[in-house]
Write a structure and sequence with these properties.
By secondary structure, this protein is mostly helical. It has one domain. Helices cover 75% and strands 0% of the residues. α2 packs parallel to α5 and α5 runs antiparallel to α6.
């Protein structure tokens, strides 16, 4: 019988430490977040320095909007990878059985892995967005700098978007028991299916259940055009919250039930 219990702080710290010891994972997530945004702004600025008449400055509000989209998109890819590792990493490594036989609750183990992966991922995303904000101000040239409100709102939206895809990825990985399947499913849905479904106007209200439409709806107004995943679908705040919560809870509940009942 599975005992319902919250993970102890010691267990949570241990799971975070396990992520930090995965050097290959750190390289992949770092490249998808911090390295990608740094190279993007560096390349744009180099083009500007080489030919200022043809290429605009790397900073400013428009480039922050594009940078936000880059961090959110690649952050979703990083979320799928980390979510898959968090869900099935212990099983793949053959240590899950050892954790279960100690008497720890399977639910506590599940929650600890989920929270540990999220705690590991979000600093990379926050760091990447901070670089985008700093570059948008420092490299703006004669362009208007983005306001503090836009940067804070954009940062919170980016963290929310990445957190959503991480939780969905974690649930899918628990359900399938496979990291590779999870990465393929989540990326295909995020990068291909979402823009396609949102752009088919004949679907009408059905487009509102696509999570990308909900995330676009709550993005800061000055960033909406850049971060939109297909056509912008009009939605109420209540519908937006319901869609995001429903997708998150559905994936976590189904994945969690499968995980705690699977043989160790």
């Amino acid at each position: 019988m599975t005992t319902l219990a919250l993970p102890a702080p010691r267990l949570l710290r241990a799971d975070v430490l396990k992520f930090r010891r995965r050097r290959g994972l750190a390289v992949v997530v770092g490249v998808l977040t911090i390295v990608a945004i740094t190279l993007t702004y560096a390349i744009i600025e180099l083009f500007h320095v080489a030919n200022a008449a043809k290429y605009g400055a790397a900073g400013g509000l428009d480039n922050l909007a594009n940078g936000t989209n880059l961090v959110a998109t690649l952050g979703a890819a990083a979320a799928a990878i980390v979510g898959g590792v968090a869900a099935v990493g212990d099983r793949d490594a053959g240590v899950y059985r050892d954790l279960v036989v100690t008497g720890r609750s399977r639910v506590a183990l599940l929650l600890s892995r989920m929270l540990g992966g999220l705690a590991y991922l979000l600093p990379f995303v926050a760091g990447a967005f901070a670089i985008a904000c700093a570059a948008s101000v420092a490299l703006r040239g004669n362009l208007a700098a983005p306001s503090l409100h836009v940067m804070v709102a954009g940062g919170l939206w980016t963290l929310l978007s990445v957190t959503f895809y991480y939780l969905v990825s974690f649930g899918v990985a628990c359900l399938t028991g496979s990291r590779s399947y999870t990465i393929g499913i989540v990326l295909a849905f995020r990068l291909a299916l979402t823009p396609l479904l949102a752009s088919i106007s004949a679907l009408g209200v059905v487009r509102e259940i696509v999570p990308g439409s909900a995330l676009t709806h709550i993005a800061p107004a000055s960033l909406t055009q850049a971060v939109s995943q297909g056509a912008v679908v009009p939605m109420s705040i209540g519908a937006t919250a319901a869609v995001l919560v429903a997708w998150t809870m559905l994936s976590l509940v189904l994945g969690g039930l499968r995980d705690v009942r699977r043989d160790a």
